Amino acid sequence: MEKLVQELKEKLRPKIRPISWAGDKLILLDQRLLPFETRYIEARTVAEVADAIREMKVRGAPAIGITAAFGMVIALIEKKPRSIDEALKVLEQAKNTLAKTRPTAVNLFWALDRMYNKAVESASKTASVNELLQDLEEEAKRIFEEELEAEIRMGIYGAEFLENGDTVLTICNAGGLATGTGIGTATAPIYIATALGKQVSVIAPETRPWQQGARLTVYELMQNGIRTTLIADTAVGLVMYKKLVNVVMVGADRILLDGHVFNKIGTLNEAVLAHEFGIPFYVLAPTSTIDTKSKVEEVKIEERDPDEVRTVRTSQGPVYVTVKDVPVFNPVFDVTPPKYVTGIITEKGVAIQPLHKNLRRLLNLT
Ligand SMILES: CSC[C@H]1O[C@H](OP(=O)(O)O)[C@H](O)[C@@H]1O
Q1: Where along the sequence does the record put site: Transition state stabilizer (predicted)?
Q2: What global pTM score does this model have?
Q3: For the structural domain made of 157-362, what CATH number should be given?
Q4: Ligand 1, residues 264, 265, 302: which to mutate, most atoms within 8 A of Cβ?
């Protein structure tokens, strides 16, 4: 596995770099404008990093975690603390600011906790703020590299469930744009299977309201030569009914130890329909997406700006498609009960049913 991971890591380095670290700032691909415009923005302050996450200039659970990790490094560069104690206070404030940007993707909180804990560990060994800064920069880079390797491992495990000629139904964008580093999570098996010589196609629902499918997944897969068909979200039932789908593969923003999966709104619809039509439904995520503490009723499902539903994003910017002041309910994630999930594919292996037991086994928690 290790030899294959390293070989594929070089072969599959992304053409599109949604997140780049430039030593003292982040360079981010503004995903609100894709596929119509490729515009990069710079984030040099904690406030700018927080804005980039909150406004979905960068989005996707792993990408949000990586961005926040570098946001902690930027905090020290921006505030220039004169002592270790002051540095830890700066980092605690940055952690609190970044934690308020979006509530559902657990990778954000996992990355912030990991960076802060690293800072505390480093502060116990040095009085030098510069050494602390270097340690944190190395930790953020490690998170970035670990994510890419995790995606390749997920891809290798997931490719085992793909036959030559298969069509995969996905949702939203759980590709390299959503992880910031490489081949994505739900799309990783597609890239690996293709690299290993299998012909695999994708059906991508547009994924209203933010259109991650129509604007990001289609863009990314076509750039990488993957046969892709765009459908309206309302067509997911018919494509399964007509046997046009062999397997469903989706990403995740938070997976609980009992197997509940929080992911883009519409995932539950696909999961229930796949269960009805006897189609395997796989969730792909790094173990940094597994929340070992929360209960399903404790997880906040993000609700966003009503105008996201009232408009569609076009090459001319958002255009209203309804009455401008119509009341809107805009939850951007839903929760899929474990019974609808065939398996959860991570970089550490695949958890099949019963998920509540096999997830613990995967994480060595039994
Ligand atoms: C591998 S990305 C996981 C997850 O993040 C996306 O949400 P958003 O675009 O709102 O950040 C989507 O739910 C993906 O499945």
Answers
A1: 172
A2: 0.97
A3: 3.40.50.10470
A4: 264
